[in-house]
Amino acid sequence: MLVTTNWINDYLKNDVSPEEQARLLTAAGFPLEERLDLPDGDVRQDFEMTSNRGDCTCHLGLAREISAKTDNTLLSPSCDIEESNNPIGDEVSVENMEKELCPLYTARVILGATVKESPTWLKKKIENRGDVPRNAIVDATNFILFEQGQPTHVFDLDKLAGRKIIVRMAKDGETFLPLGEDSVEIKLTTKDLVIADEEKPVALAGVKGGALASVTDDTKNLLIESATFNPVIVREMSRRHKIYSDSSFRFERGVNARQVKPCANRLANVLLEVGGGKVCNGILQDGKELPNPINVTMRTSYCCERLGFEIQDEQIVEHLSNVGFETTCTDGVVTSVVPCYRGDIHREIDLVEEVARVHGYENIPVEETIEVSVPPSGGEAAGKQAVLNVLAGMGFVECVTHSLVSIGAANQFLLDNESPLLIDDDRATAEPALRPSLLPSLLTVKKYNEDNGVNNVRLSELGSVFVIKDGIHKESSELALILDSEEDNGISELRGVIDRIHSVLTATTSTTVTPSNDAPWLEPGGDIIFNGNSVGRIGRLSTAVQKIWDLSNTTHVAQLNLSSLFASFPPDVQSHPLPKQPAIERDVSIIVTEDVLWSNVFDTIMALGLPLLEDVAYITTFRGKNIETGKKSLTLRLRFRDATRTLTHDEVNAPATLASDALQQQLGAEIRS
Fold first, then answer.
1. CATH code assigned to 584-671
2. Do the strands 458-469 and 397-398 form a parallel or antiparallel pair, or are they unpaired?
3. pTM (global) more than 0.70
4. CATH of domain 295-363
5. What does the pLDDT look like over 624-659, one tens digit per residue?
6. 343: how many CB neighbours lie within 10 A of its CB?
7. Residue 84: left (phi > 0), alpha (psi -120 to 50), or beta?
8. Dihedrals φ, ψ of 268, to 5°?
9. In this predicted model, what pLDDT tens digit does every residue of 276-328 receive, in sequence order?
């Protein structure tokens, strides 16, 4: 954005040097890119403009920024105008057929103007900014453009067919000749917005005026256009026809409808000064209702928190008022009416940024030292990663599958009081259900591998599952495991994996499995119990489900809900020195019925509170020769130890006998010799 120092100073009570202008505007967010000292003592400077600050693409806008950061007073030019008695409606009419693309179109008329060379003051401003003066009328429109940031245009009223302005879409194949010595006629499309008279387009809206209604030396009567256009269509037309102008640059950044009429009045005043004539009474306009002013509130406490230092409420109000916001503060809440030219302010944080800019980023205190604290290790993310690492070490391949499955697949993994959660999306007609379990997705992966000759895979996935239970949408996190194994070993292998997972998360392996028929996709199936609560399911995949996925190998699966354990990761691990004294171990083999679980055996012995007992460990289970049908042989190991001395066998005989007696009396066990 090219500006000159003297032109900016026209709107400031006290002149500001070029160096100080550059410093203040750079601090306000408009860095200086280039400077050129002119022969008459003026200085041309080029400041970088951000796309959201269309209000500063003019001298008045930059003067406002300088005024806000200093004690200098902003001198805004008057937009009052003296009209003649000649009604404008007698001279021209305006029809806006595209109010969405042109929210407001206004027209003023000046009769009896003279097109002549610009006065020295106007010519000098145009030249010093780097532009070529044309005549007083054209230079006046450029002057308003670079003063106010509002693009305007002047037509020769007598060249408008029917003395009428129509804002409409172009007709397909319609032609338009832009202004300019080297311009060539272009073909328009139905996507182009044009300003037309009753016969032809006379301007490409917001982009370029047309040669057929342009001002010449013979022009006497002027029609002043001041309007606002949709930024998107202006940008599209400019690029489509490769026509770039100062007007399109500003319309692409947004021009508020509330500034259209004041700028039309300001231009009319300048035209009267440089070209004479009389302004017709009234202003023609057509468009939507003017937008209501935007009100934004900001908590002063929030402002101080975001800035990182305390700033008084009165100073906040002053800073915002200095850049044109009508601001009040009540009970620590600032309410600001956003000026029409600030289309970038919508949220509380936007006001915080304004306070920071005006206060000066260089004035925000910076602590020389920063307190750094190491965040606590662990938490849910760390717990999940620890489990995935353990599974990878045990040969499981981690999968990440899609959360949508078919309704048929979802129905295989629902309990009696559950139904699938469906999404309303035409693109998901084949798989509209959010998975109630990770298993259907993993089974699809397993089937794909089997079809490609990859057998005996171990798969795992950790992800979200969804279900409607008792009419309520529920979402939870699930860890699913799948492995192929021999018929008798699959559950045992998965139990070992689950114990290892719990060891990582809790530093214990005290999980048990109780038979359960709740899950129809498992036969047999069981609930995994930890600290008295069910944390998941384990079992062999049912024959029916295996047939649906056409799996050849017997498949064992587990589903775990470990959210509470993830949240408390890492566990509180106690370290103890290794024992210095040897232990004495006694193996006990018992014959029990099939319904007796290891947890029953373990709890029975631990409830005795046997002295010197250090551990009760499961060894093996045997079924077969010499064991009656419906029974099993279970072997366990009792470990006794004294931390201070070596035990004798006689000292452990009594507690070992008590354990055997309790198993016989409470579980109906038979001791195998």
1. 3.30.70.380
2. parallel
3. no
4. 3.30.56.10
5. 888 888 899 999 999 999 989 999 999 999 999 999
6. 18
7. beta
8. -60, -40
9. 999 999 999 999 999 899 999 999 999 999 999 999 999 999 999 999 999 99
